[in-house]
Structures are given as structure tokens and as C-alpha cells.
Design a protein that fits this description.
alpha+beta; 5-stranded mixed β-sheet; rod-shaped
Length: 468
């Protein structure tokens, strides 16, 4: 089932629940009010007749039982003795009621030619042995089965008066009310489904576009599909995020392809040299001692170059996976200086400010080592290499040939080599690693020409610091 229909059905279910709850509350309240009105009317009528009975010796003539209904009495049943004359208002009200006297002996006297049902509780009221004085109950007439509401009021010393009123009009009213509420509920549900479907269609249209775009990317494997989603709501934000993600994937894919091509190109040269030197090994016994020494030196040099290139390729691929930790930049820089001095025998001066940051220790140490190795490699002046370390910056200055102004940004690209550096051994990845480490710490790598000759290469840091 689609999200559109799920949303529509959920909205319809909520609307149905609300409509049914409102209808039920309204129906119960109306039913209670109608029944309360009937209870008050039969009770008031019975009390009125009981007061009349107190002033008369008899309310009616001999018992009559013809089994009629509420509409069977052509004359209203009202007391007619001792000068009691029913008023027009009484006559109008009496048409709604049936009345009956229940004597203490158990004899019933129907005042409206209809005998009302009498049970033991009614007889107890008539005999003044029941604890209550008024009783309300539902019953059916003996003939015709019409449903009535009966009020029985005790008359101490005389008996009891029973007054009944038909419930069929109320039942019909409640039945009509149920039908209308049901129709209203169905209309509300239908309207809710229609509105929910339209809203879901509008909301899911953008999601369908995103889904289709994702399916296209999954089938083609190329993240170049365009996403057109507007708005500032969650769907709009999702669309923009996916668009940015696809752009990043496309850029990453392009960089990966370029990286593979560049790596293949860089590896081809030492491999070709290795293959050539290996072919010469077939004639090793015919080579002079000097030629053998040069051959072995070339093999060692090419193997070392390939090993360095592979190490730097691995560093580029996994450098961003290192976990963050506390890094003491002063100690890290001092270790890098000592290692560079042992390897090259060059003098390196270090200006180090105490700094502890949250960072990636191995990546930062590799970046500092690359800066020092790069300076040693290109500085043949014999002068000292300068290292400066602070909370926000690490940079190395040399006195080499310098970097041309138009190459200052390009030197951080992978495998980029300036014209001046092509005769120097190297992979062209050292400064690219420095740039990646700087970006991983919220900074940026930079290069500039040094006053007095040479170059200054370094990177900034914006990683959070820690108190020492």
C-alpha cells in the first residue's frame, strides 16, 4: 500500500473516530434529556392526580379493562366527582397519559379505559409497605405491546396512582437521530478521505520525485540526476540534502576516477623501470662490478619509490577514518623534527608554542613530517629549516628555489609536480596529504613565497583546544 493511501486511511480513521465519538456523546445526551423530560412529566402528572385523590372519595367508577392503548380513550381520564371539572389545559395534557388507581386491596381502577400492568412493587406502594413513595419503570401495555413509561405514586391510606406515557414517539425521535448522525458521520469520513488524499498527494508528489531520482541513480550508478524540490518544509530540506549528497557523490566519483588515473600514471614509470632492470638481470654475469652496483641501486631506488607511493596512497584513502583524541602539538612537532634530523642530517629550528587540541594524532604527525621532508628535499642551501607551531597554525619555511606564484594553489593537488621539482624524487602526494589533514581539522593548507628566498608551506587549524 502506498504512503498516500496509508495517510488517507489514517486520516479517515481519525475522522471516523472523532465523528463517532461526537455522535455518540450527542446521542446519549439527547436520549438522556428526552427520557428525563418523560420522567418529569409522568411524575408531575401522577403527583397532581394524587393531590386530587386526596380531596375525593373516589377517582372513578367501577373497574374497567378493555385493553386499549394511549389513543383509545375518546374522553380524557380525569376525576369527575365532587364538582371536579377538568380545565382545557388538563384535557390537552391528559391525552398524552394513561392513569390508573391501584387500591390497597389490589384492585385496579383504570381512569382511561386502559389497564396498566401492576407488579408486586406497585402493590407494596399501594399498601404503604414500600420504602419509596415514587417509582419509575418501563413496561409494555397488555394489549398491543406498546412501550410506556410508568410512574407510580403512593397515596397513604388510599392506594397508589399510576400514570403512563408512551415511549414510541421518543423511540422514533431517537431512531431518526441515529439515522441522521450515521449519515453525518459517513459524510464526514468521506470528506476526510477526500481531503486527506489531496493533501497526501501534494505531500508525496515531491517524495515520489525523490524516489524516482534515487531509483535512477541506483540503476545507472551515476549520481548525476537532478532533484527539483522547493519549499522550506521537511520535504524541501530532504530534497536539498539529497541534491547536495548527489553532488558530493558525483564529485567524489570524479576525484576517484582522476585519482586512479593519476595513480596508474605515477606507478607506470617505476614499474617500467623495474621491468627494464629485471630484464637486465638475465645478463648479470656479463655486467661489470660498477654496472651491477648501479643496477642494484636502481632497483632499490625504484622499490623505495613504489613503497613510498603506496604508503601515501593508503594514507590518503584511510586518513579520515582515524578517531579524534587529545593531541599535544608541541610533543608531536618535536618528534617529527628529531626524526627529520636523523634522516637528513639537516639543522631544523623549531619555534613551538604549547598547544593541546582535539584532533587525529597520526594524521597531524604525518602532515608535519611531510612538510619537513618536502622542505629538506627542495632546500639544497644547507641552511636551517624553520618550523613554527601554534594553537592555530603549523608551517615550515625553507631556503630552496621557492614555488612560482601561479603554482601556489596547485601544489596541494594530488600528483601535481612543478617543473622545478620533476627531477626530484617524490610521488606528488605529500602536500595533498597535508591539505586533507588540514581540512579534516577545519583548516586549510597554504603556500607562499618566503621573504629572502625559498617558500613557506603550512596549514591552519580550527579544532577545539583543551586546557593543559
Amino acid at each position: 500500500m502506498s504512503l498516500r493511501w496509508k495517510f488517507s486511511l489514517i486520516a479517515a480513521a481519525l475522522a471516523a473516530f472523532a465523528a463517532l465519538a461526537a455522535s455518540s456523546v450527542g446521542y446519549v445526551a439527547t436520549r438522556s434529556q428526552l427520557l428525563d423530560q418523560i420522567d418529569r412529566s409522568v411524575t408531575d402528572r401522577a403527583l397532581a392526580l394524587s393531590h386530587v385523590a386526596g380531596d375525593n372519595d373516589d377517582l372513578a367508577g367501577p373497574p374497567v379493562d378493555d385493553g386499549g392503548d394511549l389513543r383509545g380513550s375518546p374522553e380524557p381520564g380525569l376525576p369527575r366527582r365532587r364538582g371536579f371539572a377538568p380545565q382545557p389545559d388538563d384535557q390537552a395534557r391528559s391525552r398524552l397519559f394513561l392513569a390508573q388507581e391501584v387500591r390497597s386491596s389490589g384492585q385496579t381502577v383504570a381512569l382511561d379505559r386502559v389497564v396498566l400492568p401492576v407488579d408486586s412493587t406497585d402493590l407494596n406502594l399501594a399498601r404503604a409497605v414500600a420504602p419509596e413513595q415514587i417509582r419509575l419503570r418501563d413496561s409494555n401495555l397488555p394489549r398491543g405491546g406498546e412501550s410506556v413509561r410508568i410512574a407510580t405514586v403512593a397515596m397513604p391510606g388510599i392506594g397508589a396512582i399510576q400514570v403512563a406515557r408512551s415511549l414510541e414517539e421518543t423511540s422514533q425521535t431517537l431512531s431518526d437521530l441515529r439515522t441522521r448522525l450515521l449519515l453525518i458521520t459517513l459524510l464526514v469520513i468521506a470528506f476526510a478521505i477526500a481531503v486527506a488524499f489531496l493533501l497526501a498527494r501534494t505531500a508525496t508528489k515531491a517524495l515520489e520525485h525523490l524516489t524516482q531520482t534515487a531509483e535512477i541513480v541506483a540503476r545507472s550508478g551515476t549520481p548525476e540526476a537532478k532533484i527539483q524540490v522547493s519549499g522550506t518544509d521537511e520535504i524541501g530540506r530532504l530534497g536539498r540534502s539529497l541534491s547536495q549528497m548527489l553532488a558530493s557523490l558525483a564529485q567524489s566519483q570524479e576525484q576517484q576516477q582522476r585519482f586512479v588515473q593519476d595513480a596508474g600514471h605515477e606507478l607506470r614509470t617505476p614499474l617500467t623501470s623495474l621491468r627494464t632492470n629485471i630484464s637486465v638481470l638475465d645478463r648479470l654475469d656479463r655486467l661489470s662490478e660498477d654496472d651491477r652496483a648501479r643496477l642494484i641501486a636502481d632497483l632499490n631506488s625504484e622499490a623505495t619509490e613504489m613503497s613510498t607511493l603506496v604508503d601515501e596512497l593508503v594514507q590518503l584513502s584511510i586518513g579520515g577514518d582515524e578517531q579524534l583524541g587529545s593531541v599535544d602539538l608541541g610533543r608531536l612537532a618535536q618528534r617529527s623534527v628529531e626524526r627529520a634530523q636523523r634522516r637528513s642530517g639537516r639543522s631544523i629550528t623549531a619555534q613551538i608554542e604549547p598547544a593541546v587540541i582535539e584532533g587525529r594524532p597520526r594524521g597531524l604527525e604525518r602532515a608535519v613530517s611531510n612538510l619537513l621532508d618536502n622542505a629538506v628535499k627542495f632546500d639544497s642551501s644547507g641552511g636551517p629549516i624553520e618550523l613554527k607551531v601554534s594553537q592555530q597554525r603549523i608551517e615550515v619555511s625553507d631556503r630552496g628555489p621557492g614555488i612560482p606564484a601561479d603554482q601556489l594553489e596547485l601544489v596541494f593537488e594530488r600528483f601535481h609536480r612543478t617543473v622545478e621539482s620533476r627531477n626530484v624524487a617524490g610521488s606528488g602526494l605529500g602536500l595533498a596529504i597535508v591539505s586533507d589533514v588540514a581540512q579534516a581539522h577545519g583548516g586549510k593548507a597554504y603556500a607562499r613565497q618566503r621573504d629572502g628566498g625559498g617558500s613557506t608551506v603550512g596549514f591552519t587549524l580550527s579544532a577545539p583546544s583543551r586546557a593543559r
